[in-house]
From TrEMBL:
Coiled coil: none annotated. InterPro entries: DCC1-like, DCC_oxidoreductase. GO terms for molecular function: protein-disulfide reductase activity. It comes from Dokdonella fugitiva. This is Putative DCC family thiol-disulfide oxidoreductase YuxK. It comes from the Bacteria. It holds the Pfam family DCC1-like.
Amino acid sequence: MEKTTATGDPPPATENASAGEAILVYDGVCLLCSRWVRFVLARDHAARYRFASMQSGHGRALLREHGLDPDDPNSLLLLERGRASTDSDAILRVLDGFGGAWRATRLLRLVPRRLRDPAYRWLARHRYRWFGRSEACWLPEPDHAARFLD
């Protein structure tokens, strides 16, 4: 039987993120977000990232734990080494985590976050209209299923 919190959600997976594993919480019904997860899966050769959709028990609990509203999911959340990153910082950290030539994306951090994050939030507000929304969360291929928390 799976453990749950007082709210009925699974316990937070933050301890996994602090143990060297990174967890990416994404909007599972957003088609753009699902493409982002497939992009990460294809380039994360070290299998460093695990995933939780915002609609899952783990995803909702992690969002709440980090002050984000699980019912108004406009932020991407990355947990790694005990540190939480959101929005453009989360994206840049994931890209940097691929290593190799992807580390050149560090240069984008020269653009102040006060400019990057509003652009991220603008895209997040329009993502369903521009990219679409599915009725159910995207399901990974069986060989990647173990990397998803719910």
